[in-house]
Amino acid sequence: MIVSGGENVFPLEVENLLADHPGVVEAAVVGVDDADFGKRLAAFVVSRTESDLDANELKSYVRAHLARHKIPRYVVFIDALPRNETGKVLRKKLIEH
């Protein structure tokens, strides 16, 4: 769970919604430090090669389906999510990104 501006956000809910977008292969959401809100949401997205998604399009998609405090402040497109040997996403590596 990520606490952003006093609101509780479960990353899995946002990740599942992003993954449902037709231009997204997979996504991970983490909390990054923010002076005003404590934590802000950052979404790391692997998009389909034929897709020409941009951050604003994904933010609008989330805005249409979830509450305002669940919209990622940052959307970063990456080639692949970092994973360990068992396939678990390495969220600390994403935060360092």
User: Mind describing the biggest β-sheet?
Assistant: 3 strands, mixed
Strand content range: 25-35%
The top-level CATH class is Alpha Beta
Give the overall shape: globular
In spatial order, strands of the major sheet run 3-4-5
Oligomer: single chain
Tally of individual helices: 3
Query: What is the domain tally?
Result: 1
Show unreliable segments. none
- Binned, the helix content reads 25-40%
Cα separation of the termini: 20 Å
- Rg, alpha carbons: 13 Å
Q: What CATH architecture label applies? A: 2-Layer Sandwich
Provide mean pLDDT, rounded: 94
Could you state the CATH homologous superfamily? ANL, C-terminal domain
- Which structural class fits the helix and strand makeup? alpha+beta
Describe the structure.
There is one protein chain. By secondary structure, the protein is α+β, with helices and mostly antiparallel strands. The protein has a single domain (2-84), classed as GMP Synthetase, Chain A, domain 3 (2-Layer Sandwich), CATH 3.30.300.30. Helices cover 28% and strands 32% of the residues. It contains 3 helices and 5 strands, in the order E-E-H-E-E-H-E-H. It is globular, with a radius of gyration of 13 Å. The mean pLDDT is 94.
Task: Please describe the structure with a list of short key phrases separated by commas or semicolons.
three-stranded mixed beta sheet; 97 residues; 3 helices; alpha+beta; GMP Synthetase, Chain A, domain 3; globular; 5 strands
In short:
The protein has 3 helices and 5 strands. 28% of the residues lie in helices and 32% in strands.
